[in-house]
Predict the 3D structure of the following.
Amino acid sequence: MKLTVDGTTHDLDVEPDMPLLWLLRDELRIHGPKYGCGIDACGACTVHLDGLAVRSCQITAQEVEGAEVTTIEGLGTPDAPHPVQQAWIDEQVAQCGYCQSGQVMQAASLLALNPAPTDAEIDAAMSGNLCRCASYPRIRAAIRRAIQSEGA
Amino acid sequence: MASVGKIARRSFLIGSAAVAGGVAFGVYAWRKPVDNPLLADLPEGATTLNPYVMIDADGVTLITPRSDVGQGAVSIQTYLLAEELDVDPQTVRTSFGPASGAYYNGKVAAEGMPFAAWNDGLVSRVGRSAAGPAAKFLGLHITGGSTTVPDMYDRLRAAGATARETLKQAAANRYAFVRADLRTEGGAVILPTGDAVPYADLAQEAAALDPIEVAPRAAEGWKWLGKNMRRTDMVAKSTGTFRYGGDLVLDDMIHATVVTNPAMDGGVVSVDDAAARAMRGVEDVVPITDGFAVLADNTWRAMAAARALAIEWDVPTGRPADSDAMWEAHTAAFIDDAQDSRFADDGDVDAAPGDLVTAEYRAPFLHHAPLEPANATVLYTEGGTQVWTATQVPIFVRDAVAAITGQDADLVQVHNQPSGGSFGHRLDYLWVQQAAEIAVQVPGRPVRLTLSREQDMTHGFLRPMAIARGRGTVDDGQVRSLDLSIAAHSVTESQIGRAGLPAVGPDVAIVAAAWDAPYAIPDRRITGYRVPAGVGVSSWRSVGASHNGFFIESLLDELIAEAGADPVAERLRLLHDDASRGVLEAVADMASWNGPLGDGKGRGVAFTIAFGVPCAQIIEVSDTEAGIRLDKLWIAADVGQVLDPVNLESQLSGGALFGLGHAMHAEVTFDNHRIQQTNYHEYESMRLWQTPQVEVRTLETLPTIRGAGEPGLPPAAPALANAIFAATGTRLRDMPFAKSVRFA
């Protein structure tokens, strides 16, 4: 199968039912997306599929054939972070950081669809992303900061 | 703010030593030499030092021996060294260093002794200082107990200052200047001519000098400490480029997962692995203690094959099999024969005057459930074994692996990894032992073991369940007596026992934050009862204080309500410790506390001291049609001295919200010896939509600098229960509260 990840197209020979998460992590060695639960209960594996946030543990190889996948590592880089990543840095959100790849991808997708979400819309969009360190107040602040910076 | 002079000077000396192509700076270990990890070839009897600054031809490496489980330990250790050494904390190389008794933690054992943090009397001080050498000889190279900052604050700055001045002297000698005319900047000595000499160029000459001991810089001159910091891991963690232990890739690596007896321990009756072996990518299925490991070329393939194993499990005997029986074992422990401690026994609670209030409270078993599943990579060869894993106890890991490989401990190298959370989980290492058991069966090939979430969640060592029986009296509008009895398993007995060490004497954890609560109640008694060992239990963020804060602050709130007094005013009247009154006054000020709110709203207050940090919290809730909504959380804490206001706020807020999420939603229950919660959908905790607004204020009046990873947790649950009582009139005495009320 062919799959484009972060702008690079790969030829892969995997089972049709292999989850995208494990295809990324163990076949392509792209480690930004994280394994936390495997059942869509934590959001640590969130990536963008054709621009929309999806749980990569729930999407199979056959479902993404020919699609464009963006991971946290393709969204921006340490030298040129995406505005949402920059907001995360400026608000010093991460503690252990393990969930933050998914949080950033979820927030970036939300703001791409809805550049000025209400607090309730932020709550609704982000509550599938579990942060065991409970960095939520800073996640909220970072999303508001990203909204401001995008609007500026 | 505590002055540096008021902070107790610890007994260490500054030193340096030559290493291959360079120099190491550190501090001599306590009084007697201990094994030095980086100078293994030092002659017998020579004094050794524990290095924190290594400089060789490759440049500067800072050694940050305390593990980073998300609390920012690497960042703050880096800043403490960089502040003195004048290197860029964002770019300097760091290493956890090897497992070594040289990196003993002199604070952990001290806080495990029955001396109240607010009591700085002679007996307490002597007792605490005696714990320092004990920790070393136990080899407690350990991260825990909110001790990283208090334990490292002086040591790392001293090491950095000595390294800087000795490097300056080396430059002064070489270029014929006076050391006082030189300065340092950006990892180099700056000559009066303006020329910069990189530290690496001076390392060998510095190694030949007597190290120069100078006092660390005064707080007034700090560049980074005390100001809002940018954590050194923040850019990588925000861009997905940070690498955890579970992201490690080695050549020819095997991916493995394990499935073990769902009763935690207990053997195997029979197995049929034919289906698993036939699956794509599966290399082997091998036996390990209490189960099997599947080896494959991809983690998902290993996990899928593990589910295809048909195993009949043995059933353990000799301990309660389900939650009802476990509660009964706790209920049965309130007897003289099971009494573990009575550290507080003032006046006569049996003769106290006034109206009697009684209540019973319960806290459930809890899992740490950090988001990164437990994992370890092990490469075994005949000549030695390499271990890559995130651990808070590298020496225990080293020795446990050596016991499995049959090698001397010095042939086992532990490469500590940053961890995607812990909350105490990484004080255990069962999965590292499992990875070692696999590795010895495939010599020469690295094995990366990743537990499935389900395996991790159903095989954790747990925060103990606990029952508290409280009674007290009120008289003339005041709290007159308080008598609290707490029954729980001993975390210390269970956890230290797993390391093969004896835990002698009473376990302070059973009564922590209850017996030492600084309330001047005339008749006051706190009794701990030890429930016989059952399932393995563990230190969970804030340990005993995580349930005892709820018990004592709920009982006190009930007494204050019975007395008709104000919850803040009566606590202030009773608190006999200045710093404790300070945080309670601060939080009342933040919340503009002035009595009941009415209109379906309620506020609750709670106060605890845990790990030496007085912390007070007020929570405001609304009773809505959708349920109880958490509106605001105010936190005030006194840590003695603030090094990073940003991360300090994150730790206090995170601790409180972690506590609230579990108090609202989470419990671990057993049926037929099996943990019933297998994944996060059955073990809910705080989510963004239920998170209240949080406001934090920190005070700096304590004479000692303190850590903040845990102290924010204990007051959160009782503050919420007390707020719900204020809003609805309903007392919540059992956690999780969602069994009794609905949350919006």
Summary: The first strand of chain A starts at residue 2 and ends at 5.
